[in-house]
TrEMBL record:
Stored InterPro entries: DUF4062
Domain DUF4062: 16-109
UniProt protein name: Nucleoside 2-deoxyribosyltransferase
């Protein structure tokens, strides 16, 4: 549910629009982003759609585990719904897999069957940028063999053309207006807690599992894994799976242990739901 531009809250589809381009087109990227925000202000509540701009320089999160382009692909390209690619006089830096980062993003999005719109600037090329511009034109000719490309004379012209393209995509996506019921996830939702009754050092306490979901968790069992090097926690009658109804049903297992030995543990739960095995792990305090 969103509250956009001061309007009352409403449910909407959120469409992620990746604006991909080399570094020399920052003004064009800004213009496209402004257009998307303007569309939201004027149309979001009526259409029940939010267009969410995504840009590598503002939305990519530093992370290890791959090249910079790999991270951008995973965080932005793969999670986008629409890709808009812009070129001015520069092609951008080459990557391991393509002649530039933007080119790789285009290829990856096309391979994933996402709507991709590519635009090239018609503005005069400065004399000191002629060599780079020739590389852009060569790439443009390559793309012309596999798709219909767009051009633009300035930022305002680009924003107008991208708006038309995105509206065409929205019509083709056949979006269904979400409702509150659509956003409610159904299923079992077991949450564990420790119930302590410290009358003495060796009291029998309990692990309580409450099912906050709307489906029954059948044959639920669990094990505790101490996180602080403490002694193993003995669970009584845990070998027998419990059936816990949804909507607040709960079950308790007595615990026999020295309550001073272990304070924190992971609880690993397993249950059956409509014939499918489900698992969940979360931490639990034992004090």
């Amino acid at each position: 549910m969103v509250d956009y531009g001061g309007a009352m809250s409403f449910y909407a589809n959120v469409i992620k629009v990746l604006i991909a381009s080399p570094s020399d087109t920052s003004q064009e990227r800004d213009a496209v982003e402004r257009m998307l925000h303007s569309w939201n202000s004027n149309r979001a509540e009526t259409e029940k759609v939010i267009l969410l701009p995504r840009r590598w320089e503002t939305d990519a999160v530093p992370a290890m585990g791959g090249t910079g382009q790999d991270i951008i692909n995973q965080q932005l390209v793969d999670k986008s719904d629409i890709v808009v690619a812009l070129f001015g006089t520069r092609l951008g830096q080459p990557t391991e897999n393509a002649i530039s980062g933007t080119a790789e993003e285009i290829e990856r999005a096309v391979a994933a069957n996402k709507p991709v719109h590519v635009y090239f600037s018609d503005a005069p090329v400065p004399p000191d940028a002629l060599e780079d511009a020739m590389k852009v034109r060569e790439f443009q000719k390559k793309l012309q063999a596999v798709g219909l490309l767009g051009n633009y004379s300035d930022s305002d012209d680009l924003a107008y053309k991208v708006r038309n393209a995105v509206e065409t995509d929205l019509a083709n996506l056949n979006l269904v207006t979400p409702t509150q019921q659509d956003l409610i996830q159904t299923g079992a939702d077991p949450i564990a807690s420790f119930v302590t009754q410290p009358q003495n050092r060796f009291s029998q306490n309990s692990v309580r599992i409450r099912n906050e979901g709307d489906k029954t968790a059948e044959d639920l069992s669990f094990k505790l894994e101490p996180l602080d090097g403490g002694a193993p926690v003995e669970i009584l009658n845990n070998s027998v799976g419990a059936t816990i109804p949804g909507n607040g049903g709960e079950y308790q297992w007595p615990v026999a242990r020295d309550i001073t030995s272990t304070q924190q543990a992971n609880i690993h739960m397993q249950w059956s739901e409509n014939g499918e095995i489900k698992t969940r792990t979360h931490s639990i305090s034992l004090i």
